[in-house]
Amino acid sequence: MSRYYTIIPFFCVLLLSSCAQLPDSYGLYQEPASPWAVEQNNTRLQNISTLIQGGKGNAAKQEADLIHPKELTPPQLAQFNLLSAQILLSFGEAEQAISKLATTEVGQLGINDKIKPYQSQAFSYSLTGNLLESAKAKIIAATQHYLSTLRADNPLRFDVAAISGNGDINWIKNAF
């Protein structure tokens, strides 16, 4: 019986010591980004946005390649994903842009950028021929613009009245 009393604590210590040191690849103990890195990434993201607006897709892609997504804060990562999708669209890569936009967290974007993902989605879907998704993205973009003009947080519900070719009316409550 005394042999078990010495073996059990040994295994407990062994188990605890192996759990105490996790490899860095788990990402549990990441250091927060330094203020300098945050500011540098903000500057790069602004430069990319300016280059995209100026129609300089190649220069914007080169600037985006300098950014390491793991070093970005969540709002910066959302903006980076949006800008990456816009760069892809400038090269005509609509399918890749759609998948990039799917990873964009719209809630992390600034108030002025919340409409852009839906505009980019609408354009991407229209390039791929998916007109229904394009129309849906346009409606959501218009809704986001309307909501940005409101001061209060009022609950909203969107219904769709779909009229088929034979005149049937289908009312879809709380469509999206």
| Spatial arrangement of strands, main beta sheet | 1-2
Instruction: Specify the biggest β-sheet.
Output: 2 strands, antiparallel
Number of strands: 2
Quaternary: single chain
Distance between the termini: 66 Å
Overall average residue pLDDT: 79
Assign a percent range to the helix content. 55-70%
How much of the sequence lies in strands comes to: under 5%
Q: In terms of per-residue confidence, which ranges show pLDDT below 50 for 5 or more consecutive residues?
A: none
CA-based shape: globular
- Written as H for each helix and E for each strand, in order along the chain, the element string is HHHHHHHEE
What's the helix count?
7
Structural class: mainly alpha
* Rg (C-alpha, Å): 24 Å
Descriptive terms for the model:
2 strands, 176 residues, mainly alpha, single chain, two-stranded antiparallel sheet, 5% strand
Short précis:
With 176 residues, this protein is mainly alpha-helical. Helices cover 60% and strands 5% of the residues. Strand 1 and strand 2 form a beta hairpin.
Strand-helix topology:
Blueprint: H1 2-20, H2 35-53, H3 57-65, H4 74-90, H5 94-102, H6 116-128, H7 131-149, E1 160-163, E2 169-172
Helix pairs in contact: 2-3, 2-4, 3-4, 4-5, 4-6, 5-6, 6-7
